[in-house]
Specification:
It contains 13 helices and no strands. It is mainly alpha-helical. Helix 2 packs antiparallel against helix 3 (about 110-135). The protein folds into three domains: about 5-210, Aspartate receptor, ligand-binding domain (Four Helix Bundle (Hemerythrin (Met), subunit A), Up-down Bundle); about 260-295 and about 485-670, no CATH class; about 295-480, Helix Hairpins (Orthogonal Bundle), CATH 1.10.287.2610. The protein has helices spanning about 5-70, 75-105, 110-135, 140-230, 245-280, 290-385, 390-510, 560-565, 580, 605-610, 620-630, 635-645, 655-670. One of its GO terms (cellular component) is plasma membrane. This is Methyl-accepting chemotaxis protein I (Serine chemoreceptor protein). GO terms for molecular function: transmembrane signaling receptor activity.
Length: about 675
Amino acid sequence: MFSNFKVRTGLLLVLSFMSILALGVTVLGWYSVKGGSADIKNLERVALHQLQDVRKAYVGVLRAVIRIDSSINAISAETARTEAQAATTLLADARKSFASYQGSPKLTENAKQAETALARDFAAYAASVENMGQAAAANDQAKYLQIKTQDATQASAALIRSLEAFETYANGRSDSFVTASEQRARMMDIVLVALAVLIVLSIVGSYMFLNRQLLRPLQRAGNLFDRIAAGDLTQRVEARSNNEIGQLFAALRRMQESLTRTVTAVRTGVDEINVGAREISAGNTDLSSRTEQQAASLEETAASMEELAGTVRQNADNARQANQLAASSMEVAQRGGSAVSEVVGTMQEISASSKKISEIVSVIDGIAFQTNILALNAAVEAARAGEQGKGFAVVAGEVRSLAQRSAQAAKEIKGLIEDSVSKVGAGSQQVERAGATMQEIVQSVKRVTDIMGEISAASQEQSTGIEQVNRAVTQMDEVTQQNAALVEEAAAAAGSLQEQAVKLAEAVAVFRLQGGGEVIDVRSRQIGASRQAPRVGVSNERPPEHKPAAVAAPAEPEQAPAQSTAQQPLKRPVALPSATAAPAAARPAAVRPATTGHSASAGAKPAAAPLTPRAGRSKPAAGAAASHAATPAASTERPAARREAPPAAEPTLRPSATRRNQSAEDDWESF
């Protein structure tokens, strides 16, 4: 029934049902709180306000009666008057309290008779008390006693009965409010328990519904994903509904089918890649045929190096002489530095003298300023006549004193200036000596320049020798580049294809398909054992992009054990098989494009390693001759060593080979 039920619809129904239950609980809570609040308000109105006002009014009347009795029995007229006023005030307050009671909302229609009797009896008793107060104010004791014993007593008894009846009804009404509130609370307890049970049942039902419609299918989908991630593609995927979960299982089934087709295609392609690796493996044997041509170039290189050594010795002698001259130049420079130091000291002394002159000038300036002030004062004093001439005399004395100080300062300035002139003269002489020293330095530099000219001539001779070495190396490079290109391409292609075949086999080995399926083990295949690959020929034309970078590619014997194992057969040139050695030159074959540079690890390193140790191979001719005497059995040793070697570090290829490898990688990705 619920197999095609939409997950979205189910979630909306569950949320709607839960929302309705929450709304019902909210409404019931609001109703219960509102009823309780009304009961509390009614109880407060009856118990606190109405009964309190009635009792306050009755007590006020009784206190007024007591004050009236005190006024009638007072000794003095003032006390009687005071008590009468207090009684009048108490009676007025009692009437106000009773009026407040009458102004409040009434309880019910059933209490109307008791409320009417209470109002009548209170009015009668208050009137009797008022009459008692008037009689007491008139000091009419006979009338006072008559009202008190007859009218007031009867009215008080009637008021007490009415008050008791009203209190009895009001207390009963309060009890009814409390009872109604308790009944409502019990009813709410029952309703809330029922709602709680309903909520629990709805939660259980919702969980069962969601577990059946959502959680179990998702768990089953998760298990299928785990099995596919583990490589198991044999599990059947069924879509049992048309909702969102069914759509998920349908997509999962399509993904499993696509993975099955992909894995089957990859397993088929692994064997084809292995065949291509076997066809390329024989190309590495061509390297040994190039060593004889390198021997002659090495002899020329040795002769050029002897000439270069003689030139280097001559340059060394010149360098020693230049070193001695540099030492003498250094001493002269030191003397010049000392002279400059003396000049600096003299200039520092001149600077100190200048500072003193500045200070003395400042003193003279201050004295001049004070002299101006005293002169002004003297003018003022001179303006005064008579007995005040004494002040002028004092001022004149101060002016003369300041003039003397100014003269002394001028003398000091003159002496300092003369001293500075003499020191400047000494500094000039020292500068002349420094100039002579610098002239000596210049002569030494000229001599160094001459020797450097001889070094330049020797360097020219070295350049000539280097050109001869370069021509010899170029001749070696023409042959070596052809070997390097062939070995690099063949080794990289064979190694990378074989390595990729192993990686592909390992990658698809984790998948299990329906009906079984063989996992290809490329490591166990014997490359070159099933058939003999043809020899790959190389054109004698040198590729423009193959520079000596490949020849100078350093070998790294410490990288992996596989490289050392693979290099051992290359120490002795391997002879070509007899079936392919003769027609190799007549039928050159096109070289397959190399695969990606990152895949050429196990094959490229062993092939390029013999190109680097130039100094170690002093007898290349002997190695080349040994290559023709080697047995055909040696040709089978290299493929075996390459098959056993694990993937090693990536070789450093030239840009041209990298471009070819990049194109081969694009071809493999498209495959």
